[in-house]
Amino acid sequence: MNSISPCALHLVSQSPTFYRFSLEMILLCPVKPLRVSAAEQFLLISSQLVLPHATPSPGSLMLTFFLDLLFSVMASTVPEYAKHSQEFFQLLCRLLNYAATSNTPLPSAEPLLLNEINWLQRIRVSIFEFLIATRMLTYLFSCRIVS
Length: 147
Prior knowledge:
Low-confidence stretches: none
Number of domains: 2
Helix content: over 70%
Largest sheet: none
Strand content: under 5%
Structural class: mainly alpha
Mean pLDDT: 80
């Protein structure tokens, strides 16, 4: 199962170059087959222990690294590269599923939930405003047809 040396993985995961490489491969790359392949490989790597002889814990798996990476660019880089984001979101969903099934707590879960709640509240207000505008237009349109 451990095809990558945990020591080597630990060294690589500490490098800002690997952070940038991961982001480029999963989101910035314009070639879809490369993004798909990168997502599959990152999912496999995410189950690897970073430190040798470590027991699986939130900080010892590459899962934490990838989740932190994906969530850190959610509001900034993802909207800029929305047309390339399918593999990004598929990987994010699969990593979250893996975290849930392996009982891995997310270190940054609370701020993420608060962001989600704020987003949903903004959407609710927007939908409410849309429904009011639609009702007004329907009323005006019906008054114009009747008269």
